[in-house]
Amino acid sequence: MGVTDHAGWDRGFPVKYLLVQEDEDGVEQLWGRCAGVEGLFVDPVPPPREVLTLRGCSPDDLLSNVLTEPDVSLRALGDVCVEVWDDEQPVQWWTLVDAIVMAHQPHPADPARYDIVLGAAVRHEDRFFELPATPRFELFAGTTARPATRVGGCSGVDGLFRPRTNLDPVPMELIGCEPAESLLAALRRPRRWEQDWAHLLVLDRQGAVMASRTVGLAITGARPSMLGGTLVDITLTDGGDDRRPSPTVRPIWAQWYQGAPTETNMWAPYDSQGREAWLDLTTRAWRVPVPRPDDSGGEYHLDGRFVTDVPGLHCAIAEAVLGPGRYFGREWNAFKDCLSGGFGVAPPFTLTWHDSEVARRELADVVEDPQGQLPYFEDIVQLLERRGVTVVLR
Question: What does pTM read for this prediction?
Fold first, then answer.
């Protein structure tokens, strides 16, 4: 019996969530089923603001524009991705959240470079290796998840490498939960499970899994449920803050709760954040129970009228080759992987891109690959053609 076979029960309200954990063989085991969850939609708690100095900066693009306007105070840069490089590759990634330029001056050792004082919240993203002896720093407009235009490089960042206190996790409440034996054991001995994690599966109204989120199994408290009967309400100490969707995307989740999309361009009315949330939900939709061979050799038509940003481009391409609500990559690298096969369609095929000038115009300033020079639209077209796709631009 699969875990989704537990998506129904004999009560006056539906099961909307399943709590599962994978065993040693990767098979999902049911821990409990719940009627509701409070705290699924949470904006991340922002880290505290700090002051940092970019030393010996050679600015490009956005930073260069800031330095040519010395009378502008507190110039906002948005999020800035900092890549720390050794001699060959990036080894650490940081995000300066909502960075503000407070002051700048020529670098003492090289007047052609600048020291720039920023105010920002600092978030450490990934670290593959320790800090090199002589690092260099590359700066990009965006976050580590989607760095875009390079905005400069510098020889040092004062205040970046220092100890920081971890923020307290935001709890999550499981409402009207029917525990399986494993969860009952966790309720009896909560400290035993403090370091364990589980998956919270979010169900649509037909009982199909529409999303999955990782949550901690440390339990702060449990009590008889406000829904009565033998159900319990459980507080999880750590609801997985960095994986929870923002409250602003609740309407998209409510739309998917009615069932997987069946019409085209249902993602189009949303802004970039909403379209990214749409792509989040498609990542679960491609996992069909019975794999089938990839289709090849067909002709597909891409409706380009609403391709005004990167997530919109990937929504439109997936919809063109697979249909509404399907997954075929959400950024350049994932899209490249999908073109290698295993996701329903594989080259060679023909893609006719209608209203292609919309994407060419709107993505003209977006360069996704830090080493590349092509705008994102042209980069995607070139990638398609290299993989054997015939692209017809209309």
Answer: 0.80
